[in-house]
Design brief:
17 strands; Aminopeptidase; 5-stranded mixed β-sheet; Immunoglobulin-like; 4 domains; alpha/beta
Length: 451
């Protein structure tokens, strides 16, 4: 035995065991990709916006992120994998009573991927896209779940040109903003998207009570509809008039009053109108629209001389609406203004945009929150709509027939009998025909007022 040699061997064994232990420890540590370690993405929050046709999920991100998406059946699920991401906090506080989602689950997939599982109430068509930061939000991942069981509402009006078919006049009401896009915010936090929806609902109720008219709303809840989709929905319903309702805001809180706008093809009528149109046109960037939704509606339908009649009709309707708003309160501009609002660009549908008040003005913000003022605004809009269509009833509508009805007096006719047959009041029949007595002359023509 050589003691010195034994000592050397013992020291070598100790060093070898230490090295192997270190290597084993390294092998057992989780592998973290270099990119993730340096640029980990935080999912800061999840928001949900159910609508009648779809449900939207929005993931707020600390920075841009890649993602993959796939679906599973039995049960129906949508799975989203976000490499290099982690949750800031659990997904809580979402209301699943409406929409397509039953619940949301999250887990780690591998060492660096956040997996989000959307449990569905039934099958859905998913679509995903990312949005860059804007003045309202940072990076976002948007998941739209379209409901295949919901079909578009059928067009209830007769097609133009149907022989003998009378139809109702269709008014499309477009409450601005919604969902991700709150619109302007008042001094005490009142959101434009909420008050304009309240006014729109009151206007819808008044239109539905009007004989010969019916209403369609581009949105009837707190969800976002792209500017192009708003136009498309109204055109699918073959609307006779499109009214987009908003509440203005300005840096000077003293600004007040209502305004009415129509589309301009030649530039804005004022610098303020141009700035307002730019702000309203930026709504898609806030509300969240994928690239495939950004095709210009007018790419296939050019604005040319064929739209002249539509622009003239829009101006006429806007003038009558502005006149009615004067009876409710102050108007910001004494005449109808024009600017390049994207939401007014339907080539075959008269369209107006109404700024009901300045939500940035503390006094007008309080009014906009008031149900009585909301009703007064809706009533003024209804008066303007009614006045416009009584002067310009579209051919083939009940209102046009009522306006043009005539009766040739025959033997044995009495004024009371004619009134009864046409379901009009006797006093109205006398007034419209300027009759001082009930004596009738055979062969004379009576104008029949609306029922």
């Amino acid at each position: 035995m050589h003691p010195t040699k034994r000592k050397d061997k013992s020291g070598f064994d100790k060093q070898r065991r230490a090295a192997l232990g270190t290597l084993a420890g390294l092998l057992l540590m989780p592998v973290v990709p270099r990119a993730f370690a340096a640029n980990g993405v935080q999912v800061k929050g999840v928001r949900m916006w159910p609508s009648p046709e779809s449900t939207r999920l929005v993931f707020d991100l600390s920075s841009p992120a890649e993602h993959t998406l796939f679906t599973l059946a039995n049960p129906d699920r949508v799975v989203i994998d976000i490499p290099g991401a982690s949750l800031d906090k659990p997904v809580n506080g979402l209301d699943f009573s409406q929409g397509l989602l039953k619940r949301i689950r999250t887990a780690r997939q591998g060492d660096d991927t956040l997996r989000v599982v959307l449990d569905l109430k039934h099958k859905a068509r998913p679509k995903s896209f990312v949005l860059r930061p804007n003045q309202e939000y940072g990076d976002r991942l948007v998941i739209d779940l379209e409901d295949p069981e919901v079909k578009s509402a059928p067009v209830q009006r007769a097609e133009r040109g149907d022989a003998g078919a009378l139809r109702d006049i269709v008014i499309a009401i477009d409450p601005g903003h919604g969902g991700e896009d709150p619109g302007a915010i008042g001094p005490t936090g009142t959101r434009e998207k909420d008050v304009v929806l309240a006014v729109a609902r009151r206007l819808k109720a008044l239109i539905e009570q009007e004989p010969g008219m019916r209403c369609f709303m581009t949105r009837d809840g707190d969800y976002y509809v792209s500017l192009n989709q708003r136009i498309k929905r109204a055109r699918d319903q073959r609307a006779d008039l499109f009214i987009s309702i908003h509440a203005d805001a300005f840096r000077d809180r003293r600004a007040r009053g209502s305004s009415v706008y129509t589309l301009s093809q030649r530039g804005a009528s004022s610098e303020y109108a141009r700035l307002l149109a730019d702000k309203e046109n930026a709504s898609d960037a806030i509300g969240g629209v994928s690239l495939e939704d950004k095709d210009d509606l007018l790419a296939s339908v050019l604005l040319d001389l064929s739209q002249t009649a539509t622009l003239e009709a829009s101006s006429d309707a806007a003038t009558r609406v502005l006149g009615s708003l004067r009876r409710v309160g102050h108007v910001h501009k004494p005449r109808v203004e024009q600017a390049g609002f994207r939401v007014l660009k339907a080539p075959d549908m008269p369209s107006v945009l109404v700024e009901t008040a300045f939500i940035s003005n503390p006094a007008e913000e309080r009014k906009l929150r008031s149900s009585s003022h909301q009703y007064a605004l809706a009533r003024a809009l209804m008066d303007g709509v009614r006045t416009y269509f009584r002067s310009n009833p579209p051919p083939g509508t009940r209102l046009a027939q009522a306006r043009s009805r005539e009766h040739v007096i025959g033997r044995g006719d009495t004024l009371s009998g004619i009134a009864r047959n046409y379901d009009v009041s006797l006093d109205n029949l006398r007034r419209v025909n300027a009759l001082s007595s009930d004596d009738l002359r055979v062969g004379a023509v009576l104008r029949i007022p609306p029922s």
